[in-house]
């Protein structure tokens, strides 16, 4: 499924009405057709502002939440970004238009394999997809200017906090998986960590270990 001019305009309008106003975040989202990341039964709903099921029992996040997270992350053109929770690859594709380099990790090999093919076909060559437990970060590529986590943990994972550069920003949902969670922005300053709560959200849980498939 691909979008036409009318669908694209409505999609961007809906994002703005939900508070996604940053020009760079909107510009990147305009370049990535969500219809390419939703397959099968739910394809027709790709441009609606709702999370949708993807393979391996996971979900592609709601576009307005993707927009708010992208905006809060404030990615700069020279940045090296880590995403934990590749899922459909939609968020990573958006980040690839804003950052120098994106590393994205998921515990489901089936999802990472699909994403690699998709990024190749979309000519997104600055994204590296890795299968693994992202709660430990990616030590060999650390430190990162920006870290985004798209699955919920009770607290920000320690290894991710330590792999964030000074001056760096991390955006993630925190809270219990079966309750309403909070989206938070953590900034690493010379004096320590600064926490800022953004909005209530609901994400699938961050789970330990690599999945069977
Ligand atoms: N960002 C995605 C949505 C992610 S859904 C998108 O744009 O479509 C959350 C993803 O986090 C799921 O794919 C799940 O497999 C993954 N996940 C959960 N725990 C993880 C962990 N410890 N390490 C890596 N990925 C994890």
Outline of this structure?
27% of the residues lie in helices and 26% in strands. The chain is an alpha/beta fold and 213 residues long.
Element layout with pairings:
Layout: H1 5-17, H2 23-31, E1 52-53, E2 59-60, H3 63-73, E3 80-84, H4 90-96, E4 101-106, H5 109-121, E5 127-131, E6 144-149, H6 158-162, E7 164-174, E8 181-189, E9 192-201
Bound molecules: S-adenosyl-L-homocysteine (SAH).
Small-molecule binders here are: S-adenosyl-L-homocysteine
| Uncertain ranges | none
Please give the domain count.
1
Portion of residues within helices:
25-40%
Query: In whole angstroms, how far apart are the ends?
Result: 26 Å
Based on CA atoms alone, the radius of gyration comes out at 16 Å
Q: Give the strand order, joined by hyphens, for the main sheet.
A: 5-4-3-6-7-8-9
Q: What is the top-level CATH class?
A: Alpha Beta
Instruction: Spell out the CATH superfamily.
Output: Vaccinia Virus protein VP39
Number of strands: 9
Report the sheet with the most strands, covering strand number, pairing sense and barrel closure: 7 strands, mixed
Give the overall form: globular
SSE-based structural type: alpha/beta
* Series of H and E elements: HHEEHEHEHEEHEEE
Describe the protein's architecture and organization:
- This protein is α/β, with parallel strands linked by helices.
- The chain has one domain (5-201): Rossmann fold (3-Layer(aba) Sandwich), CATH 3.40.50.150.
- The protein contains 6 helices and 9 strands; from the N terminus they run H-H-E-E-H-E-H-E-H-E-E-H-E-E-E.
- The chain has helices at residues 5-17, 23-31, 63-73, 90-96, 109-121, 158-162, and strands spanning 52-53, 59-60, 80-84, 101-106, 127-131, 144-149, 164-174, 181-189, 192-201.
- The strands form 2 sheets. It has a 7-stranded mixed sheet with strand order 5-4-3-6-7-8-9. A two-stranded antiparallel sheet has the order 1-2.
- Strand 1 and strand 2 (59-60) form a beta hairpin.
- It is globular, with a radius of gyration of 16 Å.
- The two termini are 26 Å apart.
- S-adenosyl-L-homocysteine (SAH) is lined by residues 58-61, 84-85, 87-88, 90-91, 105-108, 111, 133-135, 150-151, 204, 206-207.
């Amino acid at each position: 499924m691909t979008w036409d001019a009318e669908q694209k305009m409505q999609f961007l309008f809906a994002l703005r009405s939900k508070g996604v106003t940053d020009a760079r975040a909107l510009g990147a989202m305009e370049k990535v057709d969500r219809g390419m990341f939703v397959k099968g039964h739910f394809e027709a709903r790709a441009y609606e502002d709702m999370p949708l099921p993807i393979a391996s029992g996971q979900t592609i996040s709601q576009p307005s939440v993707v927009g708010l997270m992208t905006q809060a992350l404030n990615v700069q053109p020279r940045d090296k970004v880590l995403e934990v929770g590749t899922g459909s690859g939609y968020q990573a594709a958006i980040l690839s238009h804003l950052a120098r380099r994106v590393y994205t990790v998921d515990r489901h090999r089936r999802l990472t394999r699909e994403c690699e093919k998709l990024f190749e076909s979309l000519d997104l060559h600055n994204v590296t997809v890795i299968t693994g437990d992202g709660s430990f970060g990616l030590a060999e590529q650390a430190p990162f200017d920006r870290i985004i986590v798209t699955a919920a943990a009770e607290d920000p994972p320690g290894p991710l906090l330590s792999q964030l550069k000074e001056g760096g920003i991390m955006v993630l949902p925190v809270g219990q998986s079966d309750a309403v969670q909070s989206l938070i922005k953590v900034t690493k300053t010379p004096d320590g960590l600064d926490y800022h709560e953004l909005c209530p959200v609901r994400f699938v849980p961050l789970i330990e270990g690599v999945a069977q498939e």
